[in-house]
Design goal:
Length: 329
């Protein structure tokens, strides 16, 4: 499958790894899984620094090679595609990319969860350039989820997106960019998306990544508390709910008037069937609420769950203490 020259290129390139590169090979019932395993075994045979982990899944999904948690190949990156594949492993190892300082600076503020699918073919001269750029971006931002797809192996994706030329970059399953793409053009496309259109999963990733302050800053800058983000307050995962509560606390500190837009959603959750949810929302209103939420909070003072009733009592006290100076004025 790989020529002696390709294997020698892989051996010499992988010598630059500063630490072993662990990659995950996801094997399935798909007939191509054997080829994926053979391909990776051949690379691992020429470099002890490449350490594959093979996982087997009892499904017919396509096999993949994951070089990072957010970069996966539905392709066998030999020939022209080998260079960006190997460079990505080196960049992951040494923490250095070929991206411009402008791009790197922009990515530090980028918290838009985005799915990028790159359609390629082995004979395409421009595909390695686009793949290299996309991989470098994904190495620098965990918010980018990249899949490299060889449409000669997985023709169903060419049909799904009506692909007529390669390389084609598909953004979030919708917008397509065809041909060679400049770094500046792609960054403009990625950074001009409106957070108000994000799905709850995008906001979930933001809070999971610990970027609550950045999300709060976006809300204040836009003058909006995004509906998709508020849905996280009802998330069954406590850590996600807490992350969103931290976001609203930050918004309240920066823009007290803006956070009031979240009151109706939070008040509705005071009637939630789960005691933990009711208690969390009472606690949150105690921190960010004003006199307008006192009445619904007081209804929880007799909640059947003593912890919820206590949280409501403390929230009412905090709000009344904040409101007292305003009344005296």
């Amino acid at each position: 499958m790989l020529t002696p020259q390709e294997l020698e290129t892989a051996r010499s390139t992988l010598e630059a790894l500063q630490k072993p590169a662990v990659i995950t090979v996801n094997l399935t019932k798909d007939d191509l899984s054997k080829q994926f395993r053979t391909f990776v075994e051949a690379l691992a045979a020429v470099s002890s620094k490449l350490q594959p982990i093979y996982t087997t899944h009892d499904e017919s999904a396509p096999p993949t090679i994951e070089i990072t948690p957010n970069i996966r190949y539905m392709a066998l990156p030999g020939d022209r595609e080998m260079a960006p594949f190997l460079r990505s492993l080196i960049s992951r190892s040494n923490g250095k990319t070929s991206l411009s300082e402008r791009t790197l600076s922009t990515l530090t503020k980028f918290i838009t969860s985005t799915k990028l699918e790159v359609m390629v073919s082995p004979t395409c001269p421009h595909c390695p350039i686009v793949v290299g750029l996309i991989n470098q971006l994904a190495i620098s931002s965990s918010y980018l989820e990249v899949t490299i797809i060889d449409i000669t192996l997985f023709a169903e994706f060419a049909q799904k997106y009506n692909i007529r030329a390669v390389p084609t970059l598909v953004i979030d399953g919708q917008e397509q960019l065809v041909g060679n793409i400049s770094e500046d053009l792609l960054m403009d496309k990625l950074t001009n998306q409106s957070p108000a259109t994000f799905r709850p999963d995008s906001f979930r990733k933001i809070v999971k990544e610990g970027d609550a302050a950045k999300l709060a800053g976006m809300m204040v800058a836009d003058g909006d508390v995004y509906g998709g983000a508020l849905e996280l307050l009802a998330d069954p995962d406590w850590s996600v709910r807490m992350g969103m509560m931290v976001v609203l606390e930050e918004v309240a500190m920066r823009s007290p008037d803006l956070v009031q837009r979240a009151y109706p959603y939070i008040v509705d959750l005071l009637d939630h069937g789960e005691a933990n949810q009711r208690g969390d929302m009472a606690y949150l209103l105690g921190i960010i609420g004003d006199g307008r939420v006192l009445d619904p909070l007081k209804l929880l003072l007799n909640d059947m769950n003593p912890e919820v009733a206590e949280a409501a009592f403390e929230a009412v006290q905090k709000i009344q203490e904040r409101e007292a100076p305003l009344k005296s004025d």
